Structure prediction request, 371 residues.
Amino acid sequence: MKALYSVNHQELVENLKKLEEDNAVKSILFFKTNDDSFSDEFLIPLLHSFKKPLIGGVFYELIFNSIRKNTGVLIIPLKFKLITEVFDFGLESPTNFEKLEEKFSETLPENGSVFIFTDAFTSSKSLFIEDLFNFFGFKFTFIGAGCGSDSFVSFPCVIHNSGIHANTGVIGFSEEPLKLGVAHGWTPITEPLKVTESELNKVITINWESAYDVYTRVVEQHSGLKFDDTNFLEIAKSYPIGLVKIDGEMIIRDPFLTKEGAIYCLDNIEKGQYITIMNGNINSLIEGAAKAAESCNKTDLINADDNFVFCIDCISRVKFLNEDYAKELKAIGEDLPVNGTVSFGEIANAGHSFLEIYNKTVIVATWEQTI
Prediction:
């Protein structure tokens, strides 16, 4: 069954009813935009009444049939059942890990896949991701996203049958295998630099010098541009920070604010972490998206009308590419439609690697979709 897109109350009710009555549909992914089309007062009773497992979130934009949507609800039906669980980061007990043990330990198979959606603007997100990886381990494939809006503050944005939640994460576990590709298209322009002081997503010093001074000196020299009090975000969108990992991969962090000599990124950077300053352009990002798509072996899907490519793409990539973003979606889908979300932080494990939170990165996935 194809992905379904609803722009009004009647369409959404009819689409959910259709999926509820279709015995081939075992679970759904449910994504909405952060606008006034569907109020929580309308949605929450619908979520409560839907009897099949449902997880998802509120996102800046949606992608439906390779077109960006800034309003509406996207529903992706799944032919496999998700075992779901909500994690309230405000509760002191039980811990995330204890809750995972209680829910999954007795029935956990050798491998499987985990969908993850979490409030993007909560400090507990990183610990949650760490607990998930410590419990499930290398043999499981993870894919997910940070939910939220460009207000950069926490609000109810994680969706489950139980409602719409803030300061929360939700997972959906399945034994269904996913094919996954993760790429970014950014290239280092510096040797590794050491983060000598940081607090969560706030980088205070690099090589014992003001983070702002180090960053702007490198970027101004490379770009020929000059920072002032108003243009930090405009210039920084082309110069993300790369976290240097042991396996040689770069995990991208997105600087979005500077204050009192510090640089704030969308996600955390630990003290002692080695980083590089990165740069890219439209062509390199589109090439990165094509590389991610190649990892998914889409040729198995092309002959069925209902098949599509699932994509989680970063909001800052979308804004960076702007009118050229359609080229990225074409590179991802080729002859297949692309459905997914525009997120604040992408969550995945590339290959047999650690589970990571990415910025300015695209995640592409496929699975057996014919219902």
Notes: DSSP finds nine helices and 27 strands in the chain. The chain has two domains: 4-183+285-366, 187-279. Residues 9-21 form the longest helix (13 residues). Residues 233 and 256 are 6 Å apart (CA to CA).
